[in-house]
Amino acid sequence: MDQNLQQIKRAKSGDVEAFADLYRSIYADLYRFALYTLKNPTDAEDAVSETVMDAFTSIHKLRSEASFKAWIFQILSVKCKRRFLEYKNLGDELTADIPDKEFSHDLAEALDLRNCFFGLRDDERLIISMHIFAGYSSLEIAKVLHMNANTVRSKESRALKKLSEQLSDSNKKER
């Protein structure tokens, strides 16, 4: 049996160290997903923390050890969706502060991509994040978000096209 599956079985039976090891192995993916979805490092950390607490207290309910990663990302997706609702209720636009310095070309391109990504609608960022960072298929994303898989694919396609156009426009302005 795969060592990861053994850790999950141990965690399900109450082994705190096994759960901690699982958390350490998946933290970076969880955080990256939350950060690129929510656009705010503090909110991303909070969403991941809440996710881990919920996962820890309910891991005994996990039906299949093999679906641990999908299960924990589904919990995180729900947390991110709740944050979106909070944002809308607050009416505030959250943006990351980018220092005004000279950047290398690669870093400037990465920041352009990040800014364009943050310019997408919440649902578009969520779908792309779930696909790229969490590795979900469009069918899995559809199940988590309670959407039709074709709708997910078309939203993702439009969002990627929008990203591409924004990056192209950004590059033209720099010239």
General description of the model:
The structure is a single chain. Helix content is 76%, strand content 0%. The chain is an all-alpha fold. It folds into 2 domains: 1-94, RNA polymerase sigma factor, region 2, helix turn helix motif (Rna Polymerase Sigma Factor, Chain: A, Orthogonal Bundle); 101-175, Winged helix-like DNA-binding domain superfamily/Winged helix DNA-binding domain (Arc Repressor Mutant, subunit A). Helix 2 (16-38) packs across helix 4 (68-90) and helix 2 packs across helix 6. The longest helix is centred in the C-terminal third of the chain and has 26 residues, at 149-174. It is elongated. The model is unreliable at 92-105 (pLDDT under 50).
**Parts with pLDDT < 50 across at least 5 consecutive residues:** 92-105
Number of discrete helical segments: 8
Tell me how many strands there are: 0
Instruction: Count the domains.
Output: 2
Q: How would you state the average pLDDT, rounded?
A: 81
Q: Please summarize the sheet with the most strands.
A: none
